[in-house]
Amino acid sequence: MTSGSNMIDTIYIPTYGRVGQQKTYDNLPDKWKEKTYLVVSPDEIHSGCQTISCPIQGQGIAPVREWIAKHGVGKRYAVLDDDIEFVYTRRKDEKGPSNKPLTEIQFDDMFDTMSSWIDEGYIHVSCDVCWNPPTRNAEYKVNSRITNNIFYDGTKLPIEKIDWTSLDVAEDYYVNLQLLTMGYENKVSLMYRTNPSATQAQGGCSTFRTLDVHNECMKKLRNKFPNFVELREKVTKNSGEWSDKPRLAATISWKKAYESSQINTLEKFMQ
Question: Which of 70, 156, 162 is nearest to 120 (CA)?
Fold first, then answer.
């Protein structure tokens, strides 16, 4: 186990309009709840939880992420969506059911793994999501999608170089692409993954994420990174108010985004 000052210092869970519906927080072991703070609007009261009042909470998730990053300077910290469950995906040589909720020992190992990767020099690491097919013969991947759970090295994160707020949604994709193209690799666990709630669950980002807002942000993402983002129309059933309506989905070349930073570095060196 990682110990002392190398542990994850703080867990931030931004939440809005979900008083009494804290899936992520409720699933954490007590020892990790002690490090956890709900980032809430000044007019929300969450009993039984440590909270930090954020004056801009409710104005969209992107500015709140920037606000958290400024509070996380000098720390190793996690930013977790409020509606996820961490699960363990069994390895190829293991038997039994997969995607089971983490035990306390597995939570300890997951947080320790994230911190050890920061020790290796990564400044943003994460756990994979269960949307993706399981990969049972590898423990991690590098330079991939990061969403709904991000662990940062706040001692090295170049927060002043990051555009946090140009996209109202898909802001996690946008920040990840910026860091990759700056030359900051990421590392993503394939053993520990997250099982998120439906995209438009009541409260949270659903208070401002309309279909039009989503599609516009997808276009912005492509325009900012045209070499790495491709868009396609997708119609999804059973998606509430978005059902049977065309929405834009992004296919992103995460590895190429990082590779571009190495080409640019080499070109500068050769000049």
Answer: 156
* DSSP, residue by residue, 90-151: PPTT--S-SSEEPPHHHHHHHHHHHHHHHHTT-SEEEEEETTSPP--S-SEEES----SEEE
Phi then psi for residue 63, to 5 deg, are -65, -30
Q: Name which of 157, 174, 194, 230 is nearest 61 in CA terms.
A: 174
Q: Which helix (H) or strand (E) holds 53?
A: strand 51-53
Residue type, 189: S
**Two structure tokens written together for 132:** 């993706």
Q: What are phi and psi of 172, to 5 degrees?
A: -70, -40
> For the domain 7-203, what is the CATH superfamily, name and number?
Spore Coat Polysaccharide Biosynthesis Protein SpsA; Chain A (3.90.550.10)
pLDDT digits (tens, 9 = 90+) for 98-136: 889 999 999 999 999 999 999 999 999 999 999 888 887
The 8-class DSSP code of residue 166 comes to S
Structure tokens that stand for 85 in this block:
């469950």
Q: HEC states along 194-247?
A: EEECCCCCCCHHHHCCCHHHHHHHHHHHHHHCCCCEEEEEEECCCCHHHCCCEE
Place of tokens 């707020």: 165
Give residue limits of the domains in the chain: 7-203
Q: Does residue 205 register a pLDDT over 60?
A: no
Round to whole Å and give the CA distance between 244 and 42.
Answer: 37
| Residue 266, CA distances (Å) to 85, 161, 226, 269 in order | 41, 21, 21, 5
